[in-house]
Design a protein that fits this description.
alpha+beta, globular, 3-stranded antiparallel beta sheet, 121 residues
Length: 121
């Protein structure tokens, strides 16, 4: 039962994050969204998204932002395994943040309407 309650909370919080996006889009249009820089998109949308999913975004052993990784370069976000192996945590995923609208320039299909059957409720 606790799991269902947790899922309900996650869906609610994700809905609020989507509402925030839609509010900006409605008030400022697509151009207003595109004016948000990568750091603003990360702080206002990506960080809260991962926090909703259960990542501790305030713990650098679990969640890193704007860090240089030797051999890779700068990572916008790093998700780390909080369990330490040989005294240190290990990176699991590197996330590259982009401004809203930038990906559709490279992937025009992203601008197409998504059929209803592919949208999770």
């Amino acid at each position: 039962m606790k799991s269902n309650n947790n899922n309900t909370q996650i869906k609610y919080k994700l809905g609020k994050l989507i509402d925030k996006y839609n509010k900006i889009k409605k008030e400022k249009g697509a151009i207003g969204l595109e004016r948000l820089n990568e750091t603003e998109v990360r702080k206002d949308f990506i960080d809260p998204f991962f926090e909703i999913l259960g990542w501790n975004i305030h713990d650098s052993t679990e969640y890193g932002a704007e860090e240089y990784i030797k051999g890779i370069g700068r990572a916008d976000i790093i998700l780390r395994d909080p369990r330490k192996i040989s005294g240190k945590s290990h990176s699991l995923v590197y996330v590259e943040a982009k401004r809203f609208g930038i990906l559709s320039r490279f992937f025009p299909i992203l601008d197409e309407e998504i059929p209803q059957q592919y949208i999770l409720q």
